[in-house]
Every structure is written in C-alpha cells, then in structure tokens.
Amino acid sequence: MGLPTESTAAPPGASSPGRGRPSAAPVPDDPGSLKVVPARHYARWTATVAVAVLVAQFVHGMATNPVWEWAVFGDYVLSETIVRAVWVTLQLTAYATVLGFLLGTVLAFMRLSRSPLLQTVAWTYIWIFRSIPMIVQLVFWFNLSALYKELGVGVPFGPVFWSVDSNSLIGTIGAAVIGLTLHQAAYAAEIVRGGVVSVDPGQLEAAAALGIPRLRQIRRIVLPQAMRAILPTAGNEIIGLLKGTSVVYVMSIGELFYQVQVIYGRNGRVIPLLLVATAWYVVLTSLLSVAQYYVERHYARGADRTPPPTPLQRARRLIRTLRAAAAQREQPVVPLKPMGGSR
Fold first, then answer.
1. pTM, whole model, 2 decimals?
2. Which residues contact 288 (CB under 8 A, 6 or more apart)?
3. Facing residues of 77 across strands?
4. How far apart are CA 200 and CA 102, in angstroms?
5. DSSP per residue, 208-274
6. What is the predicted pLDDT for the residue at 19?
C-alpha cells in the first residue's frame, strides 16, 4: 500500500506562482558571451570633425596666403629695434604694476577705514580715474607743463623752498608711468578690497584678542589669505595692462606697437609687421599666465592639501606612463598553464 503524496496542483481560486508577472530573463552561464554596446556620441564626433576642418583650413590659409609674408615676419620678429621696443613695453608694465598695486592697496584700506574723510577721498579717486579713459589721462600728464610750469617743495600755502621745471622733472617716460600707475591704482584698489573683504572677520577678532598689532594682522593674517581671491583678477588686470601699454603710442614712446607702426609706415608691410606685434604680445601674455599659475599655487598651499600637478609634473608623469607601456609591450608573452593535468 502506497503512502499518500502531496498534490502539486494549486488549490481552487489560487493563481499559479508564475502567473500574472513576467518571467525573469535567463542569466547566461558565461558573462563573456554578453554583447557590450558602446555609447555612440554622434553630436560630439560631428562637432569635432567640423572644428578640425575649420582649424585645418585656417592653418592652410596662413601657410599658403602670400599676404602674410612670412619671410618679412622672420626678418623683423627678432630684430634689434623690435627687441628694444619689447623691453620698453616690459618696463612700462613692471613700473605701472608695482606702483599701481602699492597705491591701490593704500586706497583699498582707506576705503575700509572708519574715517569718513579717508573713505570719501578713496572713493572719489577710484570713481574719477575709472571714469576717464586711459588715453585721455596719458595726454593730460604729457601736457602737465602747460598746467604747472614748475613743481616745488615748501610750506603748504606758503613759501616754496625748492622748485624745478616740470619738463625736466617729468619726461615722456615719466608721464607715461604716472598715467599708467594712477589708472591702474583705481582698479587695483577694488581688487585688493574685494580680497580683504573675503577674509573671515573672526580671524581679526581672534588676532586682536591675542594682542597682535593691527599692522601685523594685515601683513601676516589678512593679506596672505586675501591673495587667493586677489590673484586671479589681478593676473587678468596685469595682462590687460601689458596690452594697454600700446596706448602710449600717442606720446611717441618707442614701445612695441609704436615701433611696428613706424616700420610699416616706411616699408608698407602692414600685415607681417602687425603679426610681429601679435606674436610678441602672445608670448609675453603666455609668460605672465604661467607666472600667475605658479603664484596662485604658492598661495593655495594652506587650503589645498594636495594641489593639482603642475604642467611639468604632468609631462613627466605622461613620459613615465609611456615608458612603462613600451617596456610592457617588449616583454615576451608567457602562455598560461592549464588548470587540470593531462591524463
């Protein structure tokens, strides 16, 4: 007599286990049999091809168009006259940058002062010198002798002890430096003020509670932290000043753009001489950008524990990677032994 067995049939009214829901997809035993479909970026490839065609067309035009006159460019790009003009441009930029940011720092702290008079004077200076175009300021300082025949030192509203002729004291270069400095100081003041305001005021309160003098608070606590906010905008301003020195051509100063104008005014080679000026401005701007990068990296040490690698470090890392890949390709391939032994 057999034992009763359980019925596998479902009770009446109950649905079967697999009814009413989709069956799960079968999982293949070998994951390697799965077909991997890469993402297709049609728009990205279309834009890449279009830009590559435009760049190739531009380079081809520069290489084949005879109007560029690359031979004339090669004759003048490193000529003695152009190199001297580049040196004058660098001098004007350096003087105006250093003096402008020194004066701008003073103006910035005058605006942050609690004295209404200092605040008003600083605000008025910034308002006036940001309102007047640079070329107008340069022409004004170039004609300063028409307004003041002599400049002297003495008692205010009283006798003058020592005086000198304005033309002999302020030459053409001096007038250009004064104009560029005063113009730059107005913008530098706002840059420095923005950086100082970005520092947490609680740090100054803590420094004051420790008895640190006010000047040392500014020099050792405020400015090092404010530099992170100051440097990006200051770098752009210095690069703009480098290109803005071309405005001094109205004063007949032998800077880069003025010398280029003189040369193509004599020989009529306008395009290649303008290309010479463009190439030098690109080189100088690139050098300033590199210097700005390393200065920003220096002042970011307190905030970034692991600063990003420099371009030189990235190049070295790429070379090491390429060498390791080449060495790996040169190694012989060793065949893998089978898992089980042969019988």
1. 0.74
2. 235, 238, 239, 242
3. none
4. 23
5. HHTT--HHHHIIIIIHHHHHHHHHHHHHHHHHHHHHHGGGGGGGT---HHHHHHHHHHHH--HHHHH
6. 53
